[in-house]
Write a structure and sequence with these properties.
Elements: H1 2-17, H2 19-32, H3 35-52, H4 60-75, H5 78-104
Amino acid sequence: MDAIETSLGQLIEAIRNDEAYIKYQKCRSRLAELPEAAAEVSAFRQDTIAYAAQPESTDLQAYAERFSERYERLLKNPEIAAFLEAEEALVRTVRAVENGLYDSLDLAIPGYPEKGY
């Protein structure tokens, strides 16, 4: 396990030194200086999670339209747009690491796909 912990530490350090992480932290700091904008982003994230959890019987089309309009409105604020872009780039990096692990390891865990997801 020591080798894994060492490698994990190196991976974390590499991510923290990556341009995507550095940009995310800068955008996050700038957004924190704008409490109203930060609150809007937080509420949007919570609604995103709620949207993903909607039962199939819900009118998802109407929900998605309202969601899309709200997202477009948020993007008109340059600080929010920069933050969301930086956040997405960092999430892609983390997902690539996660997918790389799943794709490279032969796991047989119920509920998890055999290769990536």
